[in-house]
Amino acid sequence: MSTKHTDTVVDLNKPYEENDIQLKGILYFGVGLMLLIVITFALMWAFQRQLEIFAEENAPPANPLALKDKERLPPEPRLQGAPGFGVEGEKGWVNMELGPPQAEWWELKRQWDKLIDEGAKDPKTGAVIAMPMEQAKAAMLQQGVKAKSDDAAQQLLMASQQVITEASAGRVAAHTVR
User: Fold this and answer.
1) Which residues, at least 6 apart from 18, have a Cβ–Cβ distance to it below 8 Å?
2) β strands within 44-153, DSSP E
3) What is the C-alpha separation between 117 and 136, in angstroms, rounded?
4) Tens of pLDDT along 110-132?
5) pTM for the full model?
6) ∠ CA(92), CA(117), CA(99), 5° rounding?
7) Residue 25: strand, helix, or coil
């Protein structure tokens, strides 16, 4: 054997190196690190709560010129998925942000059908502002409206029956529909 390495801690007669690291030290370090993390978290949470309380107590007064939520919305028409998308109904605003694309049409069609079938009254005075369609037709026929039959009306009738084609670049009527 060589005498060169006699002062080392390593045993050169063994094919492996012995491990002097103790598991107990690693576990103490891990537990201490976890305790430090938990304590730090608790202190930061308490600090955040104190800052929130301080901010609430010292909040500046609300700006009287600040826009309300309704005023911040872009003008109509809006995209269907955008905030504020909907229609104004008889019971107030109908929100359609998360509805299908046809939801606006369905709601408007329902309102129009109700208006055609039942009519509408002014909410303040109670006066009729829109008659049901059948009642309006009957009222129109009772009035006995007379149609114009002078020369200007005849010329307007003839002009409305002429078909203008692309052959004359829209300058001359090609034929008359009768």
Assistant:
1) 11
2) 86-89, 92-95, 120-121, 128-130
3) 11
4) 888 988 888 888 888 888 888 88
5) 0.38
6) 40
7) helix
Question: Residue 67: inside a domain, yes or no?
Answer: no
CA atoms within 13 A on the CB side of 89: 18
Q: How far apart are CA 95 and CA 104, in angstroms?
A: 9
Cα 9 to Cα 5, 15, 113, 134, distances in angstroms: 9, 14, 98, 111
Q: Are residues 49 and 24 in the same domain?
A: yes
Whether the Cβ atoms of residue 162 and residue 176 lie closer than 8 Å to each other: yes
76 within some domain: no
Token pair in block for residue 118: 């039942």
| The residue to which tokens 């008889």 are assigned | 90
